[in-house]
Amino acid sequence: MTDSLGPATRVLAAAVARRHYMAGESKVDIAAALGISRFKVARLLDLAHEEGIVRIEIASDDIVDLELSEQIRELWGLRNCAVVLGHGPDPAAREALAQTAADLLCEVITPTDVLGLPWARTVSDMIRAIRELPPVEVVQLSGSLVVPDETTSPVDIVGRAARIAGSRARLFYAPLILDDAASAAVLRKQPSVKAALSAADRVTISAAGIGAWGPKVSTIYDTITDEDRAQAAAAGVVGEVMGVYFTVDGSLATTPLADRMVTVAADTLRGIPEVIGIARGRAKAPAVMGAVRAGLLKSLVIDTEIAQLLLSTDPAPARGTSASKR
Predict the structure, then answer these.
(1) Phi, psi of 309 (to 5 degrees)
(2) Under DSSP, is residue 209 helix (H, G, I), strand (E, B) or coil?
(3) DSSP string covering 68-100, please?
(4) What is the DSSP string of 219-278?
(5) Number of other residues whose CB lies within 10 A of the CB of residue 4
(6) Element (H, E) at 291
(7) How far apart are the first and last CA of the chain?
(8) What pLDDT digit, counting tens, does each position of 189-248 carry?
(9) Of 312, 295, 316, whose CA–CA distance to 304 is shortest?
C-alpha cells in the first residue's frame, strides 16, 4: 500500500480505527478478521491519525484546569497539583476548592497513613466536604485561634475527621499563640499537648491552609498586635503554614512569634511525606511560593489566579538563600 489514501484505503483505515479504538480489538485480532498482516493494521492506524480520520482530544474539566495543573506540578516539582477554575473573590471558588482538596486527600490517603490536621478555614471546609475516609489515626497539629464568626477549632476538625474514619483522634486543648515564649514552652510540656505534638512525628499525610502576611489573608495576622506584625514584616515574613513562618525565598523567618506558637516544629512539618496546601486569591501567591520553596508543602490545591502567578515565576529561590530543598 502507498501513503496516499484513496477511497478504499480510507474506508479500510476507518474500519480498522473503529475496531481498535471503539471496540477495543487488538491489532492481531483485527488482522485475522480482515485477512491482512498486523503490520498493515499498524500502518493503517498511523495513516488514520495522519489524515485526520482519527483525532485525539483531551477533554476539559468543569472544575479543574487539567493542563495548567500539570504545568504547575511539573514546574514547581510538586507531587500533586489541582488548579480550580475561578478566582479568590468568586463565592463558588471556596466551595470548589474545598471539594477538590477533599477529593485529592481521599484519592491519595491509604489505610496505613496517619492523618495530621491543623486549624485553618480551608482545612475545615475540606473536612466538611469529606464523606468517607479509611480507618486512619487522626492527629491534631496546632492549637486554636479565637476568630470572629468562626465556630470550628482544630479539635472540631480532627474530631470530625476521626468520626468519618471511625478511628482514634489525638487531641489537645490549647491556644495557637501565647502571650510570651515562656508560657508557650510550659504549655507544650503539658501531657496532652506533648503527646499530640510527639505523635506528629508519625504523621504521613496532612492538609494545610496557607496564610499570607497581610490583613484578611492570615488569621494569625488578624489576631496579633501591630508590634508583632511589624516585627514579622521586618524579618521578611510573607506567610505561614501551621504557624511556621517563612520568607518568599523559602527561608524560615526568625521572629519572636515563632517561640510563642503551640504547633508542630518546622522540621516535623517538612518531614511529613505529603502535605496538601490549600489557597485561593492572588494575595496569597507569594506565601504559596515561599511555602513550597521552604519544603513545607508537597502538593497544592489553588485557584487560577495563584496558578497564573506561579506559572510566570521562577520556582528557584534567589542565590544565597537558605531555603531547604524538597
Answers:
(1) -70, -40
(2) strand
(3) HHHHHHHHTT-SEEEEESS-TT-HHHHHHHHHH
(4) HHHHHS-HHHHHHHHHTT--EEETTEEE-TTSPBP--GGGGGB-B--HHHHHH-SEEEEE
(5) 8
(6) helix 285-293
(7) 54
(8) 999 899 989 999 999 999 999 999 988 888 888 889 999 999 999 999 999 999 999 999
(9) 312
